[in-house]
Amino acid sequence: GGAGTGSNTGLGHRGFALGGHEGPSGSDTYTAEIDFLTISTLGDATKFGDLNNSRGNGIAGFASRTRGIGAGGYSGAGQNIIEFITMSSTGDATDFGDLTVARGRFGSVCSSTRGVFAGGDPGVNTIDYITIASTGNATDFGDTITAVSNSCGGASNKTRGAFLVAYVSPAATNAIQFVTIATTGNSVDFGDNTAGVYRSVGFSDSHGGLS
Questions:
Q1: How many whole angstroms from its chain centre is CA 50?
Q2: Taking the model in full, what pTM does it have?
Q3: Which of 56, 63, 208, 209 fits a 20 to 30 Å CA distance from 110?
Q4: How do residues 80-101 score in pLDDT, each as one tens digit?
Q5: Contact 53/31 with Cβ under 8 angstroms?
């Protein structure tokens, strides 16, 4: 339930894991730990620092070339926290601002300058965005086509972000919708995933994405 993100400059390209469940399946114990690894080598992860609180279920993450973002999450209730790390250093996360709606298990996409969050538990149709290089509260972007109750994976290139909508109460879905990251507005239908899923994740390069 934690967030993953990574840098693509210097230090052998670092990958990061932020927060997550700690303990056996079904445990309500969460960790605030941030770990990193050097992607080009093999070896154990190293502690980077800590988030400002333990929130382990459905944190959303993305990064610019230098700064990593971790937002929201669920630890008994949805959280509205946005934090950032400077990926070339080590240390605890720093407060960035607040989401427009407290939530967890939601989707995130980004360009090199702007990050966009969509949907999430407890069932919202909110899309909001931040400018990664600055700090401050998230700003309203628009609305998803339907309220997303549980999980919304994201995949993006530098211009378009696709959200893989997983669960719209009371059932899993196969919907895919997208936004143009540099603008604002409601999401638009993209097509369908090959199967309806309960919780989705996505990843992408500059050309295409997988879910």
A1: 17
A2: 0.89
A3: 56
A4: 999 999 999 999 999 999 999 9
A5: no
